[in-house]
Fold this sequence. Notes:
By secondary structure, this protein is an all-beta fold. Among the domains are: 37-113, Immunoglobulin-like (Sandwich), CATH 2.60.40.10; 119-270, 6 Propeller (Neuraminidase). The protein has 1 helix and 29 strands. The protein has one helix at residues 305-314; strands at 16-22, 25-31, 37-40, 44-46, 50-54, 63-66, 69-70, 74-77, 81-85, 95-99, 102-106, 111-113, 116-119, 130-134, 137-141, 152-156, 161-164, 176-180, 183-187, 201-205, 210-214, 225-229, 232-236, 247-251, 256-259, 287-290, 293-296, 301-304, 342-345. The strands form 8 sheets. It has an 8-stranded mixed sheet, with no helix packed on it. It has a 4-stranded antiparallel sheet with strand order 14-15-16-17, with no helix packed on it. The protein is elongated, with a radius of gyration of 27 Å. The termini are far apart.
Amino acid sequence: MTASLSRRYFFPxxxxxxxxxxxxxxxxxxxxxxxxxxxxQETNGRVGSKIGILGQGFSASSVVKFNGVTATTxxxxxxxxxxxxxxxxxxxxxxxxxxxxxxxxxxxKFIVHNSWGTGTPMPxxxxxxxxxxxxxxxxxxxxxxxxxxxxVQIYNSTTNKWTTGTALATGxxxxxxxxxxxxxxxxxxxxxxxxxxxxxxxxxxxxTKTWLSKSAMPTAxxxxxxxxxxxxxxxxxxxxxxxxxxxxxYNPATDSWSTETPLLVESxxxxxxxxxxISNPSAFPIAAISGSSVLxxxxxxxxxxRAALAVYASKGFPPSVxxxxxxxxxxxxxxxxxxxxxxxxx
Length: 346
């Protein structure tokens, strides 16, 4: 009888074949030249979740570590399976199992949700830059470091690497950025540490790596926040010698501006975002948050945060709004050492 291989296999260049005769023919054993490893049944989870680990040679003395942090609760089944609880302090990285003098490493990294990790520092340290997310990458534009910066720094969270885009013609800090239809828009800011403000609007095209000027904002200001929604960009609050309640909307399609309902309270260096109701998106579609005020597109007016939460509750939504606040405005004059640290939350 003649045996034949019906499939085509590809092996690493370090693979070695050994032929051994037997009563039923010839048996081939394969050595790939790879280090032994463990396999995770789940490659992500929260602190406290239980993760199954497949491997070999496990014993009662086996020690499991999540990126160097020891798991204190581990259950073993035989010599090939462990169930480990993700320990407090664990961060993204490989899982290892050490038994005696042998350490096996997971073939994939484990991602810890609701935890902070450290990314590659920015090439150019800066405060008061604006940022935007486009195509899975984070664009950090301008900022302040002894003077207003022109750098465009692009972070890829998958590779944990930075690249650079085309620099601004003039340094800017304390501006706002937003993404609409695959383009990064930059609004306002200052180029002289707040002595004066600009109403300039610039747009960056990642495909051509070029900046273009657009219609200026009606109100020159810095320390603003910009939110993209429904193909518009709402530029909220700010500072131009005084804190502002101004809200202006930019339409990229027509390159035009309109004036919107102002904030209840003047606000600068605020944060803002969108909230969509999952259960009934049309009933209460969008809320932009600035300081302690919330803007409802349905209500077309600003309401105090407490009142807004009551509106959410009356419509059957959970009375919660996700907000991201800076602990304090970033003042370049009092900044001291300029950080380049990147912190990643998952």
